[in-house]
Specification:
Elements: E1 11-18, H1 30-47, E2 49-56, E3 60-67, H2 72-91, E4 104-108, H3 111-127, E5 151-155, E6 171-175, H4 180-185, H5 190-212, H6 220-224, E7 245-246, H7 252-277, E8 284-285, H8 291-295, E9 299-300
Parallel strand pairs: 4-7, 8-9
Antiparallel strand pairs: 1-3, 1-4, 2-3, 5-6
Helix pairs in contact: 1-2, 3-5
Length: 302
């Protein structure tokens, strides 16, 4: 049985999803950047999603967002659909754009986790051996000084989005915000400084790892010349562990609390589902239940 999704209003999460068989379908170029940002801006506005950081690698996406209206699954469904349909046109690609595995959604439960994952999203091109520093990535990314400060105005792409459809405005604005939890805890520049310090630490570790593996940094020019139709060749574990939450370094007590909370939710969900299947339609499901409440209209704790 697939584990139920645990979706709470106000959650800040990191989202990751890969292209089919790690093809370089999102190779950095203006058309892909415009497509992804436009779809992201449209969907974020529709579903009340606060966008904090985004890095679009050639083979996968990384997002850090806050689900202010408990609509994250709807947001991801539409975002990935629009990006897929547009990318098929741009790349003249038949079949799926995205990998068949579902998106990785990691709930960030502490301030430490949020800072670490914001930096992780930014450092990803360095970890992959593509550039020496996060700021060198030629594709779509966000840097620490842009958190809470950058507003993007994206014109409607010329592909897929019909100009006579009112769903697709001529332009869409996307403002990058600071996660509400961090904004409350780190006044002024403190949050950007904290993320910058963490990014520097992760960059050092990433460069050391790349050197230890004997890799040569690919560089921006070669990144731009990657064929979208070729696959990444670096080793990657299949069906690797897919965490559902992160608490940050040194947060042992919070780790145990998070494990306890998740196990309690899944246990309560299974018990409620058994009762519902037995015909007890008034069964109350645990807070965080998503699919059963959306598809079947079950009652959940609030």
């Amino acid at each position: 049985m697939t584990q139920p999704r645990f979706v709470l209003s106000g959650d800040t999460v990191m989202v990751t999803r890969r292209t089919l068989r790690r093809h370089h379908l999102f190779r950095p170029d203006p058309a892909i950047r415009q497509l992804y940002l436009y779809a992201l801006g449209v969907c974020a506005k529709q579903y009340g999603i606060l966008v904090h950081a985004v890095t679009l690698m050639s083979t996968h996406e990384h997002l850090v967002v806050t689900d202010s209206e408990r609509r994250l699954p709807d947001f991801l469904r539409d975002l990935h659909r629009l990006v897929s349909l547009g990318a098929k046109v741009i790349r003249r690609w038949e079949g799926s754009i995205w990998d068949h595995d579902k998106s990785s959604v990691v709930r960030l439960l502490t301030e430490e986790a949020m800072i670490e994952k914001l930096a992780y999203v930014m450092v990803n091109p360095v970890k992959a051996g593509l550039v020496a520093r996060a700021r060198d990535w030629p594709g779509l990314t966000v840097l620490p000084h842009e958190l809470g400060r950058r507003t993007l105005v994206i014109e409607r792409p010329s592909v897929f989005f019909r100009p006579d459809n009112p769903k697709w405005p001529d332009t869409v604005e996307l403002t990058l915000t600071v996660p509400p939890t961090l904004a409350a805890a780190y006044p002024g520049e403190a949050v950007r400084e904290a993320v910058s310090d963490e990014l520097e630490r992760q960059e050092r570790d990433a460069r050391a790892e790349v050197k230890g593996r004997g890799w040569r940094v690919l560089g921006t020019a070669r990144v731009r010349r990657l064929s979208p139709y070729k696959r990444a060749t670096s080793f990657e574990l299949l069906r690797d562990r897919n965490p559902t939450f992160a608490v940050g370094r040194g947060q042992r007590k919070m780790l145990f609390q998070a494990v306890t909370e998740l196990r309690a939710f899944r246990r309560a969900y299974r018990d409620a589902l058994e009762q519902w299947r037995a015909g007890l339609w008034s069964t109350v499901f645990p807070m965080g239940t998503w699919a059963m409440s959306q598809v079947h209209g079950v009652t959940g704790h609030t």
